[in-house]
Amino acid sequence: MARTIIENIVIEQYKDQSYFTFCKYTTIRFFEILYFEKGSGVIRINGKIVSYTPNSIFVFVPDDIYIVEADTASTVTTIKFLKSFFRGDVSQNANLPVNDWFRKIEGVLNSESHQLREMQFENNSDKSHLTSLINMVATENEKKQSFDIFIIQNSLSVILHLIARNIQFLNADMTTKVVESSKIQQIINYIHTNIYNSDVLSTKSLADEFHMADNYISEYFKKHTDVSLKKYILNYKLKLVETRLKYTDLQFSEIAMELGFTDSSHLNKTFQTYKGVTIGAYKASLS
């Protein structure tokens, strides 16, 4: 049974079923977590097919289209953030860390290499923690009037954090050579994780973090990616600007402040230089 305990977040659980109707939210879904506690079958995702088994976890982003075809009776929990959750001023959600949640989700939005949306984990403990938290949210959701909103909110925060840190941040549209070095991947992941903290992304700070000489880390990064370190950081920031313009109603000045630009004018000039269009024109084109 679908419920929206938090406005514009839909929580559903289906037990021992072979047919599912939860895809009806596709047109208004922004981000979705799908957890198969038991059962087996396939999911057709954007024209491709991937199998699911017990404890499979998938994430879906805007415009993903999927259909679940169960081979055996399946128990599924789904948590959907609808598009309107990150837009406008919903009084019920005023005390939620909405922007922090968006920052975690955007890692998935910008992970072009994550084509089939099935979660992979660095270790089994992360997966175990995530499934336990999803079950906790589903259990609280079923309690009707006795649910504990504090548990649900905090569980959702940790769920999104666990998903964010297990998403690999390789961007397929980045003009690079094949990345073979795990050190490069570590640097890229570190940049993405700390993109809102400019102080730790200076050449010196990055060199210290990865035990490399200041003048060598830039050379090393460009050698393996064909992109300079500074340009990669700027390109990723501009990608996040696009994501915010597309999916949120943040003011340009708010976006500029978040991503370390001097002001909205500085952001606009930089965006126009690299994207060929002003942020206002880009925003207008989305509608």
Automatic annotation (TrEMBL):
Alphabetized UniProt keyword annotations: DNA-binding, Transcription, Transcription regulation
InterPro entries in alphabetical order: AraC-bd, Homeodomain-like_sf, HTH-like, HTH_AraC
HTH araC/xylS-type domain boundaries: 185-285
SUPFAM superfamilies in the record: Homeodomain-like, Regulatory protein AraC
Gene3D superfamilies xrefs: Homeodomain-like
Protein name (Swiss-Prot/TrEMBL): Helix-turn-helix domain-containing protein
